[in-house]
Amino acid sequence: MDDGVNVPGSWGRGSMSNPYNYGQASSMFDVKGGFNGNGFFVPSYLRNSRYIERVQAAREAKLAAQRDASQTHNTGSGALSSRSSTVSLPKLAPSHRGMTYEVIEHQPPEVHDGWSPLPSKWAETDKLQAMAISDDGLEVYFAGGSKLHDHEAGAARTDHPMPAQGGIYYYEVTILAKGKDPTIGIGFSGPKVSLEKLPGWEPDSWGWHGDDGNTFGGQTLGKKYGPTFTTGDVVGCGINFMTGCAFFTKNGNHQGTAFRELKDMIVYPSVGMRRSNAQVTVNFGQRPFVYDIDDLIRRERAAINEEIKTTDSSHGNEGAFLKELAAQLFDHDGFIETARAFQQEVQAESRALQIGTEAPSVSTPAEEDLDTSNRQRK
């Protein structure tokens, strides 16, 4: 690469070696998620969901509009002049304590008719310059910074945020090499969080760190959470936007709830490293996950169905009961924002009518019991 970063030799030339054979399409996609016939990426746990249907429909409409615009342009007046009235000048890269980093102008998250696309790769425009990204956008390699201060690192974020509309979002990272230090952080952060910190060390940032097994939620003081992780381990990160809770997995084992009360936020999958030669690869659902996220989805849906069956309509008016039922169904399908709006509407209507009873509230899926999670560990 031309930015002075020492990266693996096969990168930047259209191919790369991968000891895990990850990041390549295979026939398994037809079974456990991947790309559909239109090249649209669909993780297995979101298949047949209304969220994916809406995103795909909006995407196809956008592509059709672009094709129409291109045809209109081609049939218009003559070719544009090859000369330009403006000159694009390269931006100077500032430095901080001997490290050169990129000037980040993170664009607002792309939205297709109100539906955010899924993360699909690490963003070249949203990483520390000392970090290199593979041609397919799935691997990250940290090449520099051997004299970092205690709370400095290199981080990268994805091209799109985690979509809250899907209800639950999950991804996995495989540690290909830990470099000279096992301090690797995996989690999620907002678009303006510093790229010189591990996930979790800054406000609007959350992460699980491999050197001590602690979780960090917006500060450098960690909390004991789970085991450490290192080269060869597969670490998963998920957010249940219905309950506002985040969790992590290690080599297919659920580690329990890590963070709570995560509401009304835009966050991106994020990874950070503290020493040179560290390298990771990500799975957004292009291939089967190590952790059985599909089983978690089934259990969440079963919990919602059970709530619906046990909803008591023997007292209170029938309309309130039906609205409560509808709100639960919104959550069942992952329509978080719709469910919240529906809840507000119900509460406002109850106050206006002064029915004298408490307004019904949206029942979200019960948070996964920690004892159940712990029993999954090996």
Secondary structure topology:
Layout: H1 29-32, E1 33-35, E2 41-43, H2 50-74, E3 95-96, E4 99-100, E5 122-127, E6 131-133, E7 139-142, E8 154-158, E9 168-178, E10 184-189, E11 205-209, E12 214-217, E13 223-224, E14 234-240, E15 245-250, E16 253-259, E17 268-273, E18 278-283, H3 293-310, H4 318-332, H5 336-353, H6 370-375
Antiparallel strand pairs: 1-2, 3-4, 5-8, 6-7, 7-18, 8-17, 9-14, 9-18, 10-11, 10-17, 11-12, 12-13, 14-15, 15-16
Structure in a nutshell:
The protein has about 375 residues and is of the alpha+beta class.
Write up what this structure looks like.
- This protein has 378 residues and is of the alpha+beta class.
- It is 23% helix and 23% strand.
- The protein is built from six helices and 18 strands.
- It has helices at 29-32, 50-74, 293-310, 318-332, 336-353, 370-375, and strands at 33-35, 41-43, 95-96, 99-100, 122-127, 131-133, 139-142, 154-158, 168-178, 184-189, 205-209, 214-217, 223-224, 234-240, 245-250, 253-259, 268-273, 278-283.
- The strands form four sheets. Strands 5-8-17-10-11-12-13 form a seven-stranded antiparallel sheet, with no helix packed on it.
- Helix 3 packs antiparallel against helix 4 and helix 4 runs antiparallel to helix 5.
